[in-house]
Amino acid sequence: MSDQKVKLQEAASQSQLGGHLLVECLIAQGVSHAFGVPGESYLAVLDGFHKYQDQIQFVTCRQEGGAAFMADAQGRLTGRPGVCFVTRGPGATNASIGVHTAFQDSTPMVLFVGDVATDTRDREAFQEVDFCSFFGPSTKGMAKRVERIDDAKRIPEYVSRAFATAMNGRPGPVVLVLPEDMLTHEVSSRPLPQIEPVQVWSDPGSLRQLREMLLQAQRPFVIAGGGGWTPQSAQALQRFAENWQLPVGNAFRFQDTFDNFHPLYAGDVGIGINPKLAQRIKDSDLIIAIGPRLGEMTTSGYTLLDVPKPKQKLVHIHASAEELNRVYHADLAVCASMNAAARSLEVLTAPSSLPWTDWAAQANADYLGNTLPQALVGLPADSAQGLVNMPEVISVLQRHLPADAVLTNGAGNFASWVHRYYKHHGLSKGFKTQLAPTVGAMGYGVPAGIAAAVLTGRVVFTIAGDGDFLMNGQELATATQHGAKSIVVLLNNGMYGTIRMHQERDFPTHNMGSHLNNPNFAHLAKAYGYEGVRISKTEEFEPELMAALARNQGTLIEIMLDPEAITTRVTLSAITQNALKTK
Question: Under CATH, which architecture does the 373-582 domain have?
Answer without folding.
Answer: 3-Layer(aba) Sandwich (3.40)
